[in-house]
What does this fold into?
Amino acid sequence: MKRITTIVATLIVLLGLLFVGGSSYLPATAQSDSHYFKETGHTAKGRFLAYWNQHGSLAQFGYPLTDEFTEVSDLNGKPYTVQYFERAVFEYHPENQPPYDVLLSQLGTYRLRDKYPNGGPTPAPHPGAQIDAFLNGILMFSTAEGYAVGDGGSIYHYTNASWQKDVQLTKNNLHGIYISPKGLGYTVGGKGTILAFNGQWGAVNSPTTADLYDVDQSDLGVYWFVGNGVIVENISGKWSVTPAPANATLASIDMVNADEGWAVGATHQPVAGIILHYINGQWQQYNGPSTTGLNRVRMSDATNGWIVGDDGTTLHYIGGQWVKVSSPATASLRDVSIISNNEAWAVGTDLLHYVNGQWSEVADPFAPNGTMNALSILSGSSPLEGWAVGATGDLSNPGAILHFRDGNWTTYSGK
It folds into this structure.
C-alpha cells in the first residue's frame, strides 16, 4: 500500500512539472474571457482569444505583441479592431457571422506591395491541369492568383503560373463568382447551388432551388445573388429571397455601392432584354433601349458602365442613361471588362475591343467554334493583364482559356 501511495505521489509531481515547468504551452483556459501573457505583457480576450485557442494557439500565432486597438486598413481605408501577434494580425469583423468575424490581415499582400510595387517576380511555370469542363465564370485577385468555375461543379485555381483543378463540392454547373479583397465570397450555380469562400471552399445551405447565375457584394457583409426568377440578398448571414420582376431570368448583377446597383437578363414572353436598377432601397425596372437577352453588366463607377448581350448587343452607360452602341458582332456577347471610360473588352462568340469610341473585332484564337463566357482583366496592372474562359467547341478538351497581356491574346494549354 505504501508503494502504491509513493507511485501516485510521484505521478502527481511529474504531471505538475509537465503542466507548470515543461516546455509545452497550454492554451488559455476556455472558461476565461481574457488571458494575460506575462511573456510579452499583453492580454488577449473575447473573440480574439477564442480564435487563438481554436486555431493553433501559441504554435500557430505566437504571443500577443499588443493589446486590441483600432487600425485603418490599407486595403479599403476602413477602421477595424485589430491585435498583433508574433506570427499574425487578427481583425474583428462584426458584420460577418462566426467563425468569419475574426479574420487574419493579408500580411502577404502588404509585404508584396512594399517589396515589389510593380508586381511580384514571375515564378517558373508549372505544368497545369487539362481543362476538362466548360468554364463559365472567372475572378482574378491579381496577376498571380485567381479562380475559374464551370460545368459539373468544376473549380480551377490559378497559382504558381498555372491553372490547377481545385476541390469539387457539387456536380451542378457553376456560373458566377465573386471574392472580395478581404478574401471572402461565393460562387453560384444550378439548382440554387451556393459555395462560400474563406481561403477555401465550403458548401452553403441555399435559401432557393432556382438556378443562380451571378453574385456581387454591395457592402461589408452584404451579398446579392441573381438567377432564374429570383433576387437573393444575404446580410451578415441572414437570407431573403425576392421574385424577379416579370419573372425574368437575371444573368448578371453589379453593385456600384450599398445604395445603387444594376442587374440584367431576359423576360420570357416575349423574349426581351430587361434592365433592373437598385436605387432608394428597391429594385426598379429601367426603361432602356429595346434589346434581346442581356448577359452581363459591368460598372466601373456610378457614371460609367457597359452591358452586353445576344445578337452582338452593347449598351454604354454614360450621361446617366443606357445608350446602344453598334458593334461588329452578330452573335452572343457574354462578358465585358472595363479598362477606363474610353476602353473596354468584350467576349462571347466574338472577341471585341472598344477604343476611340467604337468597337472593333480582334482575332479570337478559338474561333470559329469556341465561345468565351467570362472575362477578368486587371485594369490597374502594368502591363495590362487578364484572362478569359469559356468553351473550345472540342469535347475532347472542352475548357477554353485565353491569356491577355499587353494587348495580346494567347491560348493557355494545361498539357
User: Anything to note?
Assistant: Residues 32-115 form one domain.
